[in-house]
Specification:
It comes from Apiospora marii. The chain is of the alpha/beta class. It has eleven helices and five strands. Helix content is about 60%, strand content about 5%.
Length: about 270
């Protein structure tokens, strides 16, 4: 929420950072910061898989379907291809579902570092619970029924549930999921490649991790609660507008059909 899909850079752009932070840990802010420091686009997998180009949406659905059942060498190579093709032209990836596939991304990009945004458990869960409350309302699926994004979201949600169960034993992001995720990273990422970062610390520690100079501009801040609620409202308004349009179409069809039948009845 709160950010538009990004366009890939030229072929051959060096991929440098696996953004492994769980959602609502400052991933959107880190996205902006990395695009400045690494001078290239960051692939936000949540945004790209739900609102990006159709080919990105389909590839992420295929990735999420294949990852939990990739048992053979051929399956792993197919998964490697899908990940590398969807991330071509980007300097980093961010957010879920990519963050849940850190070991798989490390296999594709062995030279990349793993950078995990984190925050206190209490503040993270307040933010995550707020977002869950927005997205979990009973009426939202009905209101956005005619929006294009809702079509892919139904498939995306099922695939993401499969990823969550496979990786953490949860079918969605729960209060204990962030801890499970961070414990998983400690278990699978070599210590020398795993870096922890809190976006409240600003430029200095991030620039030290990346080995780049501190830029002469304010540190970005993206996707706070008001941003999330703004995007939620935009989806509600767009969904209601789509319903008005569809009802107008149905009304016109019924009117002309009724008129035609009356003429034939005379």
């Amino acid at each position: 929420m709160g950010q538009a899909p990004s366009q890939p850079g030229p072929a051959g752009t060096k991929f440098r950072v696996i953004g492994a932070g769980m959602s609502r840990t400052g991933t959107k802010t880190l996205n902006e910061a990395l695009s400045i420091l690494l001078d290239g686009p960051v692939h936000d997998s949540g945004i790209q898989s739900l609102g990006g180009p159709p080919e990105h949406q389909q590839k992420w659905v295929d990735i999420m379907e294949l990852a939990p059942r990739a048992r053979t060498f051929a399956d792993e190579k197919k998964l490697d291809y899908l990940l590398s093709s969807v991330l071509e032209g980007y300097v980093a990836t961010m957010d879920c579902p990519a963050a849940t596939l850190t070991p798989e991304l490390m296999r594709v990009y062995p030279d990349a570092i793993v950078l995990c945004t984190t925050r206190s458990q209490e503040s993270w869960w307040r933010s995550m619970e707020y977002l869950n409350g927005l997205m979990g309302t009973w009426y939202l699926p009905l209101i956005v029924l005619w929006l294009r994004k809702s079509q892919i979201y139904g498939v995306w949600r099922v695939r993401f549930q499969q990823i969550m169960i496979w990786r953490y034993g949860d079918d969605k992001i729960l209060e204990g999921t962030k801890q499970k995720h961070e414990d998983h990273l400690r278990a699978v990422v070599p210590p020398e490649k795993l870096f922890w970062y809190n976006v409240s610390e600003g430029w200095e520690p991030l620039c030290k991790i990346l080995g780049v100079p501190v830029p002469d501009q304010p540190f970005p801040h993206n996707n706070n609660k008001s941003d999330a609620h703004k995007v939620y409202r935009e989806h509600i308004v767009a969904g209601l507008a789509a319903w008005v349009f569809m009802l107008a179409i149905v009304t016109m069809v019924v009117y002309y059909a009724s008129s035609w039948m009356k003429r034939w009845a005379v």
